[in-house]
């Protein structure tokens, strides 16, 4: 085992342990344990938003795609950037305002209150969507963490999975949401540092950008083409295939919960969108060029790569001193853990808050409710660990469907409920149920990720119309239309329409504040004098 | 050899568009002079947490 790599990794672990211990002070109620008491610093909420969003895909999958496909893979980055921005513009501030108004802790909490659903169906369907997809997601992250640790420290994959579960579960149980967001901040910094350093080192090693592109062109000129060599309609479908991630962002509970936790909704506008946006641009450019230039190094015979997805670890071990390579390995583990911890907490909230507390109506003391949350975190972690170690086919099918399932299950109803006063609970129930069932059926059973004409019967005909377009991208808009039509056929209660209208009335900026400031700036005597003069007393 | 103009455009144009969206949205309250109304009821901080923070234990 390389002692430099181990040292870098141990420093990273020590930081996580300290944060878990520190955050334990702020885990006394459900509000604190699941949304940080709605008083999370904007820097932590914004960086945690992005660290939770980008899993091992950022450090392994995306550079691997750039390695294999070249420039065309950048469209995935474009999708992620605009998905990030769409979350702030369409979801963030309005969801935080509603979350405060309704004291909502989870996404189903918000939806039930917003749509005034007394049947509890929205909460049950919401919790089901979260549980099915998030548990599978967590299992996939554990498996990825196990593989990364196995590569770095030459241990078995199952030992790596166990180590990932122990580290992650320890700080989630101890410190709850505060531990998750502040460890995410550290992890986000590890990730961005890694993705700035690695491409520059690669550029120096390969002998400049001109040399790199020459080497890539010699191997495959299509890798330098914006659409991977495709033209016309094929180029548009190629771009949509990658950039379709945008709509997926609107429905990911582990991401949007960050907005519900932030200290002030107005801070999501400024500086929130700038922190997230700039970080996203840096990591997406960095990860793309790491893979792109990694291929040039590979072609130049400088780098040995057995698996394109391991191009960053390979570059770290080849180009860096061992202690710095340790930090890069920590960066990769960070990407995996920062997503897994958020998903684990959200999955736990679906059971302890949505099902146990709200659906079954069990309410114990504040501390007991937090402890139930902790027990559920442990239980879900053990289930996910079992799936990760056993390599269950069902879980792989759910992981492949998870992004789309959450996007279609929550995205349309969340977006419409925040922007359209007419949306009704009937539309919410049918839209969410359709989202859950259709994604499992269409993605896990019939098509897989994208439409194709080889599906049976009518599905083959539909598959030929939308050939190569991701299923969830089309299904998102189908669900949106279903919710709109049912909302128009039904009627929302008068009071929720009024609440929606009042809540988002905008007020002049500064005017109110500056009047107060001016009044406070005057001395008491000046205020009394002004009052006397105004009343004509003297 | 380098990248073609179209290739550079693929990298740079969406990034610049993203920055423009960021700046426009980030300063939309200044541009329009209006912002969402926010009060204590909307902020809705957890009371136990506030007590913990006021107690200087954080």
Would you give an account of this structure?
The complex is a heterodimer of chains A (538) and B (58). With 538 residues, chain A is an all-alpha fold. Chain A has helices spanning 3-23, 30-35, 42-53, 56-69, 74-102, 107-114, 121-153, 157-206, 209-219, 233-243, 245-248, 253-261, 266-299, 311-319, 322-359, 366-390, 393-419, 425-447, 458-465, 471-489, 494-503, 511-521, 524-535; one strand at residues 506-508. Helix content of chain A is 79%, strand content 1%. In chain A, helix 7 (121-153) packs antiparallel against helix 15. Chain A starts with a helix and ends with a helix. Mean pLDDT of chain A is 87; it is low at 514-521. Helix content of chain B is 67%, strand content 5%. Chain B has helices at 5-26, 28-32, 40-43, 47-54; one strand at residues 34-36. Classes of the chains: A mainly alpha (538), B mainly alpha (58). At the A-B interface, helix 5, helix 9, helix 13 and strand 1 of A face helix 1, helix 2, strand 1, helix 3 and helix 4 of B.
